[in-house]
């Protein structure tokens, strides 16, 4: 589990336990893929929203059905950090993945993946909200307490690739209040939404980033700990996560994956009921809808806004250096938008 140089000197036990489960999953079968690419396992990467083991067990039933639908085995890579999954994607060790906006955006704009589907939740909203959690008991009880004296409090946050765990709170709350999340707090730990919420509930941190979908899941899994927590801030809506597939795969295979996902949980009878139970265990999903690269436009805009705000508020040797940085940000954003216009199957 990664943390900044300002991490707590002693890492809470819950984070050490998570680190032990860093990688789980079936073998990546690289040799088999080289020998017989048409029959090699499709390697599915899972975004670390809870523990690595529980993430894999939640996805196993759906991926077993996917394997039958596309006529190829599906192996699993479940990790405990965004960075680990991002590195696996960059090493071409992942063929398909469940990713939130920023990671999906990077995978697509680096021309490694294409979006095939986007998740839908039972609440029917087109997205979810980033949250800040604190304990119900003193001394930190309100958002004003947090913003007035950030250097008094210990924060548990998500990795920098996490939309709700870092990007949105930084963009919509902290930077507008002249607070850089990485440097202004007494100390910080970096982990998953689940471990961060547990850290606050167990008094190992004072405030944690989270999101509305994962906090609902947390309430079901840890009801006693959830009773100790309150929401002190929530963001605007954030678009839901995507399923991405390696762009080198034939359009026909990507189409079969998309057809399977969009039909999953929509049927009637016992099979449809069983599929809906699986979806509910997957962060209370209602299913999937067909999507393409253009669904990542909101994620690109969020990343652009954060980069621009960081550049405006940072200290520079002169204004020319600031303007050069702002120009690079504008150019990079334009390039991303151009890539996201590729909506071919």
Brief summary of the model shown:
The protein has helices at 13-20, 30-35, 52-70, 82-90, 101-109, 143-148, 163-174, 193-201, 212-221, 223-226, 251-263, 269-281, 297-313, 319-340; strands at 23-25, 42-46, 74-79, 96-99, 113-121, 127-135, 154-157, 187-190, 207-211, 229-239, 242-246, 285-290. With 345 residues, the chain is an alpha/beta fold. It has a seven-stranded mixed β-sheet, with helices on both faces. The chain has a five-stranded mixed β-sheet with strand order 8-7-9-6-10, sandwiched between helices.
Question: What does this 3D model show about the protein?
Answer:
With 345 residues, the protein is an alpha/beta fold. Helix 3 packs antiparallel against helix 12 and helix 13 runs antiparallel to helix 14. A 7-stranded mixed sheet has the order 1-3-2-4-11-5-12, sandwiched between helices. The N terminus is likely disordered. Strand 7, helix 7 and strand 8 form a beta-alpha-beta unit. Helix content is 46%, strand content 21%.
Order of neighbouring strands in the sheet with most strands: 1-3-2-4-11-5-12
Helix content: 40-55%
Q: Tally of extended strands? A: 12
Q: Mean of residue pLDDT?
A: 85
Task: Estimate the strand proportion.
Answer: 15-25%
Global morphology: globular
Biggest sheet: strands, sense, closure? 7 strands, mixed
Radius of gyration: 20 Å
Given the helix and strand composition, which structural class is it? alpha/beta
Number of helices: 14
Any low-confidence stretches, pLDDT <50, length ≥5? 1-36
How many angstroms does the end-to-end distance come to? Answer: 36 Å
SSE order in H/E notation?
HEHEHEHEHEEHEHEHEHHEEHHEHH
């Amino acid at each position: 589990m990664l943390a900044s140089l300002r991490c707590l000197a002693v890492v809470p036990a819950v984070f050490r336990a998570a680190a032990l489960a860093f990688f789980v999953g079936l073998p990546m079968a690289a040799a088999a893929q080289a020998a017989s690419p048409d029959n090699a396992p499709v390697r599915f990467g899972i975004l670390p929203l809870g523990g690595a083991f529980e993430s894999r067990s939640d996805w196993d039933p759906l991926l077993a059905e996917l394997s039958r639908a596309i006529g190829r085995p599906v192996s699993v890579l479940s990790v405990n950090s965004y960075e680990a999954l991002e590195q696996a994607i960059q090493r071409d060790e992942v063929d398909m993945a469940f990713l939130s906006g920023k990671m999906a955006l990077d995978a697509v704009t680096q021309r490694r993946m294409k979006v095939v589907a986007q998740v839908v939740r039972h609440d029917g909203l087109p997205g979810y909200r980033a949250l800040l959690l604190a304990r119900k008991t003193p001394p930190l009880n309100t958002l004003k307490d947090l913003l007035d004296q950030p250097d008094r409090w210990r924060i548990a946050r998500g990795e920098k690739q996490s939309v709700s765990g870092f990007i949105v709170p930084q963009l919509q709350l902290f930077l507008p209040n002249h607070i850089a999340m990485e440097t202004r707090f007494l100390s910080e730990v970096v982990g998953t939404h689940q471990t961060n919420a547990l850290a606050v509930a167990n008094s190992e941190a004072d405030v944690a980033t989270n999101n509305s979908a994962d906090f609902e899941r947390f309430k079901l899994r840890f009801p006693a700990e959830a009773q100790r927590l309150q929401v002190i801030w929530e963001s605007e809506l954030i678009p839901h996560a995507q399923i991405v597939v390696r762009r080198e795969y034939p359009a026909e295979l990507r189409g079969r994956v998309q057809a399977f996902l969009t039909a999953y949980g929509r049927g009637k009878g016992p099979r449809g009921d069983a599929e809906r139970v699986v979806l509910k265990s997957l962060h209370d999903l209602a299913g999937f809808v067909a999507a393409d690269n253009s669904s990542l436009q909101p994620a690109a805009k969020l990343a652009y806004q954060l980069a621009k705000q960081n550049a405006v508020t940072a200290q520079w040797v002169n204004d020319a250096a600031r303007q050069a940085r702002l120009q690079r940000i504008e150019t990079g954003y334009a390039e991303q938008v151009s890539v996201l216009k590729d909506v071919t199957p």
